[in-house]
Amino acid sequence: MRRTSYEQMNCSIASALDIVGEPWTLLIVRDAFYGVRRFDDFHENLGIARNVLTVRLKKLVEVGIFRKIAYQTRPLRHEYRLTDKGAALFGVIVGLKQWGDRYGAAARSGKPMDLVNRTDGRPLDPVLIDAETGQRMELTNVRAVAGPGADQATRTFFERLAVNRAGR
């Protein structure tokens, strides 16, 4: 069953979800961050149906998150490597991991995986910061406003929010 497309929404989050919003997709990308590249390895690790994995990998190649590279000619076999566009999802995956560590099953039973520095192996605790000021970004010190690509409906929405905030 095809889910609803968010294509008509004037929203970067909605357009990202149109590409990576299906749960298997992010799990495939997660495994690619771990170093998985081959169809059979994705299949074995995820336990995903082969036909579903085939469709997801094809879509990820079409949208430029993976590139497909032949590693064997007889029979022809491919591996799937992250593009720069795919690697840019790393922060999303780390954010989901942190949320799951705090509020998911890991909160009860412990984190199943840690992130460590590749060079010295020390544990890492990633945070989201503003590149210009170095200030940690939290819900309490950030607010959304209409950007340069906002259509009129989006601008009206954010104007209405600003009026409501001022009236409180």
Give an account of the 3D structure.
With 168 residues, the chain is mostly helical. 47% of the residues lie in helices and 9% in strands. It contains eight helices and two strands; from the N terminus they run ααααββαααα. The protein has helices at 12-20, 23-34, 39-46, 50-62, 84-87, 90-103, 106-109, 152-166; strands at 66-73, 76-82. A two-stranded antiparallel ribbon has the order 1-2. Strand 1 (66-73) and strand 2 form a beta hairpin. The longest helix has 15 residues, at 152-166. The relative contact order is 0.09. The mean pLDDT is 92.
Instruction: Summarize the helix and strand pattern as letters.
Output: HHHHEEHHHH
**Spatial strand order of the main sheet:** 1-2
Q: Rough shape?
A: globular
How many strands, which pairing sense, and closed or not: the largest β-sheet? 2 strands, antiparallel
Number of helices: 8
Cα(first) to Cα(last) distance is 44 Å
**Beta-strand residue fraction:** 5-15%
Helix content: 40-55%
The overall pLDDT average reads: 92
**Unreliable runs:** none
Evaluate the radius of gyration. 20 Å
**Total number of β-strand segments?**
2
Class derived from helix and strand content: mainly alpha
SSE order and pairing:
Blueprint: H1 12-20, H2 23-34, H3 39-46, H4 50-62, E1 66-73, E2 76-82, H5 84-87, H6 90-103, H7 106-109, H8 152-166
Antiparallel strand pairs: 1-2
Which labels suit this protein?
168 residues; mainly alpha; 8 helices; 2 strands; 47% helix
What's a quick, concise take on this entry?
The protein has helices at residues 12-20, 23-34, 39-46, 50-62, 84-87, 90-103, 106-109, 152-166, and strands spanning 66-73, 76-82. The protein starts with 11 loop residues before the first helix and ends with a helix.
